[in-house]
């Protein structure tokens, strides 16, 4: 019995030391079960977008795309100052950059593939998603097949007309210079939020596509020339 309690104490000591390494040395990055990391991983599984208004503010503060995304890698979530209920959740994440403690908001409309990086303004509880202008895509989920083209005769016809080859082609255009058209996007659409994506073309014009989020894929329904 003495040996049992001795082994139990040694196990507890080792477990405690392991937790110290995880929390303080590895900054929780290995613990996907922690609430903070579950939230961050959910955001990193979305397309992170910066609106035109927020881009101007980020430029004023000299925040690069890499620094914005770094908030989701090793920033600290302030759960008490976040909006955790409602159709659009908003999390306040803090991080020190160049000796300054900076806070950003990251919003997540339910069932959408878009998540916004936002410079804090006003009350986080009264936050509303952007409804005007365009949003630049600065980060994508780390998956091989992000795009799914819904099978339909009309979509096949549009693809032939606009020179769209396949899913890989659309994904390439999306990551090259894809935008979200906030003025057409409807996060409250039923049964799923509709996000309108703007894709560049070789001849200089653009295409707009109606999309939704389906089983970790951006599902494209139709294309139209702008």
Could you characterize the architecture of this molecule?
- This protein is of the alpha+beta class and 226 residues long.
- It folds into two domains: 35-130, YaeB-like fold, CATH 3.30.2310; 147-225.
- The chain is built from six helices and eleven strands.
- The chain has helices at residues 2-25, 35-44, 52-60, 65-74, 153-162, 167-177; strands spanning 47-51, 76-83, 88-97, 100-109, 114-118, 134-139, 147-149, 179-181, 195-200, 206-214, 217-225.
- The chain has an eleven-stranded mixed beta sheet with strand order 2-3-4-5-1-6-8-9-10-11-7, sandwiched between helices.
- The longest helix has 24 residues, at 2-25.
- It is globular and about 65 Å long.
- The model is unreliable at 19-29 (pLDDT under 50).
List the helices and strands and how they pair.
Elements (H helix, E strand, L loop, with lengths): L1 H24 L9 H10 L2 E5 H9 L4 H10 L1 E8 L4 E10 L2 E10 L4 E5 L15 E6 L7 E3 L3 H10 L4 H11 L1 E3 L13 E6 L5 E9 L2 E9 L1
Parallel strand pairs: 1-5, 7-11
Antiparallel strand pairs: 1-6, 2-3, 3-4, 4-5, 6-8, 8-9, 9-10, 10-11
Order of helices and strands: HHEHHEEEEEEHHEEEE
* Strand content bin: 25-35%
Q: Give the domain tally.
A: 2
Briefly note the structural class of the backbone: alpha+beta
| CATH topology (fold) name of the largest domain | YaeB-like fold
Low-confidence parts: 19-29
Proportion in helices:
25-40%
**What's the mean pLDDT score?**
89
Number of strands: 11
Helix count, per DSSP? 6
Terminal residue distance? 78 Å
Multimeric organization: single chain
Q: Tell me the Rg in angstroms.
A: 21 Å
The CATH architecture category of the largest domain equals 2-Layer Sandwich
**CATH classification class of the largest domain:** Alpha Beta
Largest sheet: 11 strands, mixed
Molecular shape:
globular
Strand arrangement in the largest pleated sheet: 2-3-4-5-1-6-8-9-10-11-7
